[in-house]
Amino acid sequence: MTSSVSIKNLSLDFGAVSVLKTLNLDIEDGEFLVLLGSSGCGKSTLLNCIAGLLEPTAGQIFIKGRNVTWEEPKDRGIGMVFQSYALYPQMTVEKNLSFGLKIAGMDRSEIERRVARAAGILQIEPLLKRKPAELSGGQRQRVAIGRALVRDVDVFLFDEPLSNLDAKLRAELRVELKRLHQSLKNTMIYVTHDQIEALTLADRIAIMKNGVIQQLDAPDVIYNAPRNLFVAGFIGSPSMNFLKGTLVADPGGIAFETNGARFSLAGYRTPATLDAGRPVLLGLRPEHIRVNEEGGAVSHEAIVDIEEPMGADNLLWLKHAGHTLSVRVNGARRFSPGTAVRLSFDMAMASLFDAASEERL
Ligand SMILES: Nc1ncnc2c1ncn2[C@@H]1O[C@H](COP(=O)(O)OP(=O)(O)OP(=O)(O)O)[C@@H](O)[C@H]1O
Ligand SMILES: [Mg+2]
Q: CA dist 98 to 25, 72, 77, 91, Å?
């Protein structure tokens, strides 16, 4: 596969502050890549460098094999959609869509064809004669996406396009964006700090922290095999449970011990050597702990502290060996606070991190 966008050793400093640090990233043709990270980690800065709105301090950017590092934004073959819709308030939706093409001197029949196509894809045909003030937030954001669509570009850049919308609309437009990508198959680079958007939309997610990509992988790999403690804690809601403890020798092989409770690690797959005595963190997702079920080599007693029924799921907060564990069970299963339960653990789905380096073992 060819690379659609290729970023080589990209650095960007604002004065003395280094925001992007020798960053490398190859985005495949037709890929939906999500840049995910907390506020201030450099997501927009990276996207703006790709768009040509910011000049990098060092490094190069290639789009379709062409070095565009010093090209004007309009010459890069990209379309950008921002969080704020930035529509022209005095123009109708139709004019908002066609304006840029007209300025570029495109002929009228081609403009009409492109506007009609974009309006059809985004289902905004009935809105073409309205002005932005007469649209809902979701409709305005669709028009903003339409403005990128009519340009017929190779690469779409999105900077948190859904974050101004309420939760229900956000979920709806998320599905529409996914459908849009499935039908257009353009390369899309999408910035968000919302892990659900990242997990649902991405072919691959690049998780960033302080201007450095921590992991670049498919969503299920990021979720199930996070490379370090930061990624493990960032993805998943509620967060993965982390237990601080030590690796110990056990008749059944190597085990994990915390506050006197011992967990067999049989079933945990790792290329690393697990040496007794090493301080580690054991990471267990809420859905990988079972309550009062048969099977599972390890069985521990815990006390229900709180339950949070969520409809389909019931989230239990349990006290176990000096830790509070969150555990997800089927919503039909209810537990009163104070009840004693037996826990078993799905160690094949667990994560172990070295306590000092915070890297996955
Ligand atoms: N023009 C600027 N001058 C100086 N510092 C800047 C400038 N623009 C951004 N920064 C800093 O660069 C860092 C990265 O900013 P950026 O906008 O890329 O973050 P982000 O990941 O998009 O965050 P958010 O999720 O809040 O949008 C931040 O610490 C920010 O304060
Ligand atoms: Mg940003």
A: 33, 21, 17, 10
